[in-house]
Write a structure and sequence with these properties.
Elements: E1 9-12, H1 19-49, H2 56-73, H3 76-83, E2 89-91, H4 92-125, H5 130-133, H6 136-162, E3 171-172, H7 179-185, H8 191-222, H9 228-256, H10 266-287, H11 290-299
Parallel strand pairs: 1-3
Antiparallel strand pairs: 1-2
Helix pairs in contact: 1-2, 1-3, 1-10, 1-11, 2-4, 2-10, 4-6, 4-8, 4-9, 6-8, 8-9, 9-10
Length: 300
Amino acid sequence: MVMTKNVTEFILLGLTQDVEKQKVVFGIFLILYLLTLLWNFLIVVTIKTSVALGSPMYFFLSYLSLADACFSTTTAPKLIVDALSQKKTISYNECMTQLFASHFFGCMEVFVLIIMAFDHYVAICKPLRYTTIMSQQVCRMLVILAWVGSCMHSSAQVFLAMKLPFCGPNVIDHYFCDLQPLMQLACMDTYVINLLVVFNSGAISMVSFLILIMSYIVILYSLRNHSAEGRHKALSTCTTHFIVVVIFFGPCIFMYTRPPTTLPRDKIVAVFYTIGTPLLNPLIYTLRNAEVKNAMKNLW
């Protein structure tokens, strides 16, 4: 049965309610957001225009950058605008749209990271069959599956959110719409819905993290028979990937695998994976990758 809702809009408290601090938030996050768009756009353009970056690894990296730019766009602009706005409201429909978009592109990033780990595994453990296994058709199919899986995940999130009845308070102690803060406002027992959230978002985050860790263990074990130069190159690539995984999955696991309670540090933790990760990903991949840096120089 679909619950009726009397609340038509929500008030987002943002990161702070201090007027002076809000000005700082506006300036800092505006710069970070613009840098995120610039760097991720530059990576996508570089990969699409460079002949040297035609391998599956860079094909997937371009989609990771696209997901990063879109993921940041789902939350950062609203945070920036609300920092200087007197009326920090978001309509019910806009809230559901933001919930869908943030989970869609966040889940897309999860799946692309898993695909990239699989690509690294095939390149290191099965080098002679790499071109056969990671053909263009397979790469496109993997990306399509990532899009479909992300759509299913985010649709489930919106479905759960639309089951929540809002008949009283409409103040969200957060800077964007997510299920955890929304459940705090619902005039019903949200125990079952929280369990579904844990089995959905929490399970995806935890299982994906474990899959990635296992892939690194297998890769490291297989490197024992490689040359010193080969081990160094493979370890450099895996280290870069591992840094991204820890920065992204750590906060996600913290947020989505616990009871529906809001903590004062939740908003800061959310900043790490909604704004921090999309900003750091292009830096981590480009600063540690000579091929990407050379391709960017040629592009300029």
